[in-house]
Amino acid sequence: MNAGRGQESAVEVLITREAVERRIDEMGKEIAAAYRDCLPLLVGVLKGCAIFMSDLVKKIEIPLEMDFISVMSYVGVQSPGGAARITKDLDTVIEGRDVLLVEGIVDTGMTAGYILRNLQARGPRSLRVCTLLDKEVRRIVRIPISFRGFNIPDKFVVGYGLDYRQLYRNLPYVGVLKDEMIGLDRS
Ligand code: IMP
Ligand code: MG
Predict the structure, then answer these.
(1) Residue 46 CA: which ligand is closest?
(2) pLDDT at position 24, please?
(3) pLDDT given for residue 9 in this prediction
(4) Residue 78 has what pLDDT?
(5) Do 122 and 64 touch, CB atoms closer than 8 A?
(6) Residues of the domain holding 22
(7) Is residue 177 part of a domain?
(8) What residue ranges of the chain have pLDDT lower than 50?
(9) Which of 52, 71, 113, 154 has the most neighbouring CB atoms within 10 Å?
(10) pLDDT of residue 179
(11) pLDDT at residue 83 in the model
């Protein structure tokens, strides 16, 4: 079992740590300006949001609340299954609230689309989307994105919270997993 070693050699850097941090800084300012007259509730989509959201909220210099939601997502690289089930719901009642959904990545849009429909039905005052990464070329479901970190090409990326088989989330940059690593047994 060497899953904890050699992470760096499995990945080619796509967006450096410095570039991610700089962009998150800007996004924090954009979000603070957009929500300066209300108390936004940031809803993170677990687990991919975790690293991004914890860095982002520190850059939003206005009062805010945080909550998290988790939905059944697809397993593996190429099989976007139905994101049809909430596995961890919000603790917060969002009726009348200004909700900002925080995603690590929007790919086909099926996950975000499902969550947006679900949250919209609860009657928030506003509902917007923030994502660190946008793989727009893969979009199937139209998602209005108000705050976007980076538009990325059609590559499977890891790091900054994003995983391949639950690994690589802790890489402090966004990288492309090398082909030879995909499908490898981790034993
Ligand atoms: P969707 O296709 O937009 O529904 O994205 C579903 C989920 O797949 C995302 O929330 C991520 O968890 C995951 N995902 C999509 N693309 C990537 C990727 O390039 N790397 C890691 N996870 C991804
Ligand atoms: Mg994943």
Answers:
(1) 1
(2) 98
(3) 86
(4) 46
(5) no
(6) 18-73+82-154
(7) no
(8) 1-2, 75-83, 186-187
(9) 52
(10) 82
(11) 47
CATH number at 142 reads 3.40.50.2020
Residue 55 falls within a domain, yes or no? Answer: yes
Nearest CA among 47, 73, 75, 46 for reference residue 183: 75
For residue 13, which of 162, 165, 177 has the smallest C-alpha distance? 177
Is residue 1 a part of any domain in this protein?
no
Q: Can you read off the two tokens belonging to residue 79?
A: 């099989």
Residue listed under structure tokens 């909430």 = 86
107, part of any domain: yes
Q: Residue 153 burial by CB count (10 A; 0-12/13-18/19+): exposed, middle or buried? A: exposed
Active site residue 55: no
Ligand of minimum distance to the alpha carbon of 116: 1
pTM over 0.85: yes
